[in-house]
Amino acid sequence: MASNRLKMSLLPALQAILDTGSVTRAADQMHVTQSTMSRTLSQLRETLNDPILIREGNHIFLSEKARQVQPLVSKLMADSETLFENQYFDPATSEHHFRIGTGSVILENFLIQALIELKQVAPGVTSSVSLPCENMISSMESGELDLGVIVTLPDTTESLCKEVVAAASFNVLMHKTHPMSGCETLDLTEMEKYPFVITQAVIAASPYINGLREQYEFLRNPWLKLPSLQAALKAIRSNDAFTIVTNVEYLAMDLFGDYVLLPTLADSPPLKFELVWPEHWQFNQAHQWMRGFLLSRLQSFFEKGE
Q1: pTM for this predicted structure
Q2: Of 35, 50, 120, 251, which sits most exposed with the smallest number of CB within 10 A?
Q3: In CATH, what number is assigned to the domain containing residue 209?
Q4: Within-domain flag for 159
């Protein structure tokens, strides 16, 4: 029995190691020294009969067994937090930590301000934010992330709980001085003579955009491939270039004055801007409160933009 209690006490450290893939970062997250976390990793390796972390060259990866147990560990930790936190949850005294995934536009134009406001009512609540990657949905399914504030494609979040904030779509964006800015309809073949700017976030997020690039050679060979929409806006401001964005990004950045969003691209899938989270957080009071806090501010934010 004592042995089982010891093993259970190792769960928080195990989750930190699985989430960060690093002894150093896990130690920071647990507020312990690196040597303490290294000793804990040794205990975990002995208990699980597995290396957990594997070094290959200059990189460290989770072992196959570690990847397999990660969703279970996340669920166990969420269930234990729900059991105890729900008895006495108070945002003013809570020390819950949220791992949030979102895009850079939403982070910079909405989420940062929301987290600043959060500190006023829940000073002990902390958050870490991850920017989008191709594996963001799977990161929530595995328990690496607790909450996503993202634009989703159809049928990609069926395994997750969700709350729809707004409908979304892919659109062509250009400066108001662009020759095509007055068009009420758009055929992409008409855009072939204009420079195309693509952002890395759009490439990573959408098979639909990649399908368009297969269909149109001029999309396949963009004038510029840039890491952020902010950089793309500077590129299209001073010439006849264009880019592809979602209407959510357009609203979030309040681009109405200088830029024009043309109608939804043909055959664009019906996107949704959603709050999404793993099912094991569904009934946790801290998580429920955080979702309500963000949702009310998101709805207010986008109502003002519209």
Answers
A1: 0.77
A2: 120
A3: 3.40.190.10
A4: no
